[in-house]
Amino acid sequence: MPPRRVLPTMLLALAAGCAGAADAPVPRPSASGATPASPATELGGRGAVPVAASSTPVRASQPARAPAACPDGELVLIDTTARVLRLCEDGRAVATMAVALGQGGVGKTREGDARTPLGRYPLAPPRASRSGFGTFIPVGYPTAEQRRAGYTGGAVGIHGPPDGAELADAEVTAIDWTLGCIALARGDLARLVAWVEARAVGVVELVR
Fold it and tell me: Could you give the CA distance from residue 4 to residue 162 in angstroms, rounded to a whole number?
């Protein structure tokens, strides 16, 4: 395993495929019946990461608090402040998992900002990543309403660490290293995929 001190740089270098055209979300009707259009490309595939090779993302200090409570219904809830993903069933969390987010923070509005979006989105069925991140679960950013408001970008989803990267689970989520996607440790991603497929969950909500 690479020394811990080089992990941030390695993750940044390998993140080039995240949010690329190959993993663009598949359009899927939302709960309201609206179908998001195919999103724009973030980096056009495996291009250069828009962060200096020596940069080390550091998470802003956040006050300790309990993760956001699950709303009614079945959905994936991502608390971007607590950096956790929760599997919600009928108002209760049946599992909680650590996540890594975009290098640019949260509140995505434009292509290339490396931010993770906030809001409620359709969640497409899991499939193999075409950019080398194991399984990929497309998130329907931007919605039709967001596109009308001028939001750009796309190809956002939930995925695992880069294929071939020998990282401990805690190392995958130690820093925010993606280009706007949500990253999980491999074991947690497998649990998420099994739950989403078994219960046909099609909604993800990202809150601050």
Answer: 16
47 band by pLDDT with thresholds 50, 70 and 90: very low
Q: Cα–Cα distance between 9 and 177 in angstroms, integer?
A: 9
Residues 193/117, Cβ–Cβ less than 8 Å: no
Q: What is the pTM of this model?
A: 0.79
Question: What CA–CA distances, in Å, run from 182 to 37, 61, 121, 170, 178?
Answer: 21, 19, 14, 15, 7
Contacts of 89 (CB under 8 A, 6+ apart): 70, 74, 199
Integer angstrom CA distances of residue 62 from 8, 41, 80, 82, 185: 20, 31, 11, 8, 22
Instruction: Sort residue 166 into left (φ over 0), alpha (ψ -120 to 50) or beta.
Output: beta
Q: What residue has token string 């291009």? A: 47
Mean per-residue pLDDT for 17-43? 43
Residue 67: what pLDDT? 87
Q: Residue 57 to residues 43, 158, 176, 188, 193: CA-CA distances in angstroms?
A: 19, 19, 6, 23, 28
Rg, Å, the chain Cα set: 16
State the chain's mean pLDDT as an integer: 81
Task: Pick the more confident residue, 9 or 2.
Answer: 9
